[in-house]
Amino acid sequence: MKNNVFTVMKKECKRIISDRKLFFTTVLLPGILMYTMYSLMGTFMVSVFTVEDNYQYQVHAVNLPESVAQIISRSEES
Prior knowledge:
The chain is mostly helical. The protein has helices spanning 2-18, 20-49, 66-77.
């Protein structure tokens, strides 16, 4: 049983490597497509994760406790 599996496996591997079209579509093409897709995704996503240097952050607090409001007002005065 084991010998039959290895024989078939060797035969199929030899067939994939010897046929140029089959080798291209099973080995090279998926690698090239993955590299291209991840490169494009990285290029397009840079704009999503970068922040302009002059961007002013704004924070809005709802139902802010008085103790936290005092701490914030003290830090703004300094």
